[in-house]
Write a structure and sequence with these properties.
CATH superfamily of the largest domain: Glutaredoxin
Largest sheet: 4 strands, mixed
CATH architecture of the largest domain: 3-Layer(aba) Sandwich
Distance between the termini: 85 Å
Shape: globular
Strand order of the largest sheet: 2-1-5-6
Radius of gyration: 26 Å
Strand content: 15-25%
Length: 177
Amino acid sequence: MDHISPDKADAVPGRQTFHHGVAALALLFCSLLSIVAGSAVGRETVAMQQVTDLRQEAAIARAHKLVMVLEFSSEDCTYCRKLEALFLLPMQRNADYDDKILLRSISLDEGNSVIDFDGRSIITGEFATRYGVSLTPTLLFLDADGNELSERLVGIWSEDFYGGFIDNRIDEARQKL
């Protein structure tokens, strides 16, 4: 077997092309890794805005004539995360919804409480029971007094049409404000 000195390696036919191919693959890999890492970081820092005081949220909704969209969720609900990732978080970042809705989430996990529309502290599970919510995710479309303005959405199905279902509920609710 012939040995080639490092200074003559590039003179071997095909060797330079091989080195350029490896370099291009390494560059492509690093680029993809940075894109994936960047999007993972973005997902970690964006979360649904949790409601703690519905009276305060209602005051904002009333002042700006907004529909309150409340998501009932729980930590271990994979469908809640799917709903948030596909629809609610993009809506939260979309300026087109700023003058239409106030989007908030209520966690039904044990130990969580919320100030209700009457100013009383209540366990979130009891608050959900008051509205007949027993499954997560559930979306309610409310006015500033806590009245349902359009049909609620329970669960997530038909991803192709679900965004339209949400928009239709919002439009219907806005007409009733």
